[in-house]
Fold:
Amino acid sequence: MSRTADMAAAVLACEWGRVLDAVASDVGPHRGAGRVADYIPALARVDPGHFGMCLATRDGEQAGVGDARVPFSIQSISKVFGLTLALRCRGEALWERLGREPSGSAFNSVVQLESERGVPRNPFINAGALVVTDVLVSEFGAAGALEAMVSTLRELSGNPAIAVDEEVAASEAETGHRNRSLAHFMKSFGRIENDVDEVLDVYFRQCALAMSCEDLARASLWLANDGRAPGRDEPFVSQTLARRINAIMLTCGHYDAAGDFAYRVGLPGKSGVGGGIIVVVPDRLCVAVWSPGLDASGNSKVGTLALEAFVEHTGLAIF
Amino acid sequence: MSRTADMAAAVLACEWGRVLDAVASDVGPHRGAGRVADYIPALARVDPGHFGMCLATRDGEQAGVGDARVPFSIQSISKVFGLTLALRCRGEALWERLGREPSGSAFNSVVQLESERGVPRNPFINAGALVVTDVLVSEFGAAGALEAMVSTLRELSGNPAIAVDEEVAASEAETGHRNRSLAHFMKSFGRIENDVDEVLDVYFRQCALAMSCEDLARASLWLANDGRAPGRDEPFVSQTLARRINAIMLTCGHYDAAGDFAYRVGLPGKSGVGGGIIVVVPDRLCVAVWSPGLDASGNSKVGTLALEAFVEHTGLAIF
Amino acid sequence: MSRTADMAAAVLACEWGRVLDAVASDVGPHRGAGRVADYIPALARVDPGHFGMCLATRDGEQAGVGDARVPFSIQSISKVFGLTLALRCRGEALWERLGREPSGSAFNSVVQLESERGVPRNPFINAGALVVTDVLVSEFGAAGALEAMVSTLRELSGNPAIAVDEEVAASEAETGHRNRSLAHFMKSFGRIENDVDEVLDVYFRQCALAMSCEDLARASLWLANDGRAPGRDEPFVSQTLARRINAIMLTCGHYDAAGDFAYRVGLPGKSGVGGGIIVVVPDRLCVAVWSPGLDASGNSKVGTLALEAFVEHTGLAIF
Amino acid sequence: MSRTADMAAAVLACEWGRVLDAVASDVGPHRGAGRVADYIPALARVDPGHFGMCLATRDGEQAGVGDARVPFSIQSISKVFGLTLALRCRGEALWERLGREPSGSAFNSVVQLESERGVPRNPFINAGALVVTDVLVSEFGAAGALEAMVSTLRELSGNPAIAVDEEVAASEAETGHRNRSLAHFMKSFGRIENDVDEVLDVYFRQCALAMSCEDLARASLWLANDGRAPGRDEPFVSQTLARRINAIMLTCGHYDAAGDFAYRVGLPGKSGVGGGIIVVVPDRLCVAVWSPGLDASGNSKVGTLALEAFVEHTGLAIF
Structure:
């Protein structure tokens, strides 16, 4: 009997809710661990004690625990959706503008950007996400780019209330000097087509989208379903594209801790400095977790522990 | 019906041999493409027209095509087995000696090694593999370390004739200045315990092991079988460890093209500059492919194309 | 008899004007060589055939040749004067904000800035000059900082007509993405005190000052006179400070070609991408030269040749 | 009256011995400061309390203080003489093999060596000195290269007893992994012509030459005398070459503290991790100082203070 069949059996025997309760219990002693992102004042005020987790299967099951319905700042998790929209517009030609290799560097490093003349290593470091945003601004205009992102997330999650947290967006705009630096740096190599301030404005606002674990788990389901979003006739993206985005999440989804996350959790995932992480079990389900305290690489500390525990309880893994 | 079940059905309907024939036919027009590694004279003389591929399933099925039984220099593929032996000896404590993050750099780069004071990024860049070899020399002595590697590969593959190609080993020793440089560099930070020349000797000889695709596919099967090697009562390694090694292969197995390989092929794999690549389909099978011409990152050009075609024909992928 | 006395004798025997004529004749065949800076559109339009040179001694002698009185964009030569004003305000405490080591990198590199957390290597790379400008803005306000620079240069040169070329300033502001990037980068480390756009505005305008070789040679004389400017009762700066600024010019005045300039010319100097260079013969005189075509490091090609010829004709050198 | 004439007057008024006594008295409270180089065991045992200084003028005057006649390990000061011999053999063609720019990096850094494909930045970082040694080995053979160095130093200093400290040489050879790494690294780019071990052997032995401050001050006098060594009919090198070596000493003589040394001392100089420093006052004299404790950049801490005091007492400076 294959491992997949084993798992299915094991999992059917319990209920998802009980799995999440067990996970929450496992990480209970660690609640509040890590350090809330402090370089964006509006994020620094978030209570580090929050913990929420939500799971959604492609068969329509769903379970949550803790603050699963409390919205938080999705930050870099938005990069998955930005990339997806850009790939839908540009296809493989997008890769003329940026790479898809793990960077081996911090999320906001500029070193490789200089040696590679303004071409970012991958779409999940900040420089790469700025190029992706620039593509969307070229496609839709500045207002249209944000609107495309918001309406996509509302539709995929089924939550029409998803919106930008304007206080966070303003806080990012005010303190986002490193991102401004990256954008001007690439512009100096001719790698940004649009006005830098316009691109940054869209970028800061998309990072400041507030969503709950429930919203995120549902909005990501097409990644676990060969590109098909529940309730849509047309595939959101092709099977090939969905698999490829999973591959990029696995190799590049956690900055300079991508290898560690693959080693410990073993699932494609994407984190944000708001403390959220989404992971995908291909052909099965998505999980979103939230806990604001970060580790040294900027990934949710308790969130990662929870996903490790989840994999241990369920045996779900791609390796 | 799940994708895994789909695949199973699709695959049962054809025979593995026919799949490999189709793959060989697909890549036929590309035979000879790429550039044979020329920095090791004994490798530079290999005919770039070779192509071989072998598949072995955990259920005991096997199929080959082309030069599937022709031995070639496994080079960096040996790093997977070296790492495994070292992890069996030292467990998680091994990670005090090296990282497990993709490096974002070429296989022989020294830049990160300087900024990280002699601690290699991962076990699959040369510096990391030298640390692994150093661990094995500490455990088994210099002669014993090589013997442990050779006997393990003979046992796992069932081929008692596997041996070091002494001409290649001598050629590597003579021209391996970059590796000597890396080893002395780490020694200067106190990161190599044993005599540098002894460690290098084992390293060069393990890279010079000659194995065929058939040997490699069989010797790797425990990676696709939760750590259990066919015909052994005891697991070769634990399920957890097997999964973790797959994770490292996916994030770090192709030097600075790891992201590209994950994007295009989507399977854990490890390449060598001899032109070989092994990949793992967890819970199912292993494939080894060989074609000596390399791309700019040092990975087999036609071998990668063949694996892309294999995934396309079978739908086997982890994402 | 000491070399200095030798020189004095040799030089008195000829007239300065004849020396400059000989130099102009030497470099005649090279007129127009090099590449006019093309990243600032207003500079790209300058005729590469210009050549001017002016010498002023601390004893009041002066000589010129060619376009010695044609104003051009002084660009980075302004960094010498900015640094001097900042050192007059802050003294040695200025070095808490930036280093005084040659960078080994291009003038606009960001690599060291990242590894050294936003502290520039020296005041003559762009990042360092931006910190200096920031200090001046803190001291005088944005308008006052530029005014301090302009009035100082007018007074030192005796030319009340010195002014910003507003077209060049506008051109720099429009295309200065790399400088914007550097400034925001340092701001992200808290290394810029004032509003980035204000600092950049002063910086772009000070670079866009238009001065002739005659203006520059006269305005620099205090560097050759232990800090005393002709016609001023009070020293402009102390002897110690004048010497130290000469030292920084020698080690850092020509970006990543500082060593080459010291080797070939052997005098403290500072170049600008407008094609100007000033050099100092301590205790004797200053020379300013202008020729718009640049070499690969961004220094005036014919200007450097002219200074080599000047040293050869006069034997004046500090080594 | 020119500064030079001022100085001459001031200096004639005192005696050199009294100047050195005053300097020794100034630095007395700092005796023993800094950290003795500990990576070479034979150096680590040197008493940090040593202090010696010797001055020799081109007119034949000489003065010493403290341990001016105690031999110590000259270490990198040997690079000046190695470079000089190589330039005498190869002339300007030597610069095809290495640069002459300050590196902006530590003396043993490998980062730039990788990005510049094995071409060292300048002859005074270790990699550059290894290339220089390689040139000498090509010219004279391994034994001949060392012999050329030793006999030159004996002749220039007038001390036939100058010899390699074999204990230090053995200690360097045993612990010199970083230098081995650099040499193999360059060899991998084809930048070292001879056998790496032979080149290293000469290099380690030349660094282990034991000389006193008196030996060094006398052996360097040609640098202060337009290339003429006292008591030789033929110039040791040309005036041009002597000046150029001074220029390289000023820009590159103190590793990543070259700018600081120029700023504080303002004279061309070269330091060694044995705690020695030589400086040149062109057209006048040379000074050698020794105090084993080093600062963070590997330059003698008290030696640098003594040279600052010397400049303050005498007003001798090139700027």
In short: The interface with chain D takes residues 2-4, 99-105, 112, 121-122, 226, 242-244, 246-248, 250-252, 256-260, 262-263, 266, 268, 282-284, 317-319 of chain C (CB under 8 Å). Chain C has a mean pLDDT of 93.
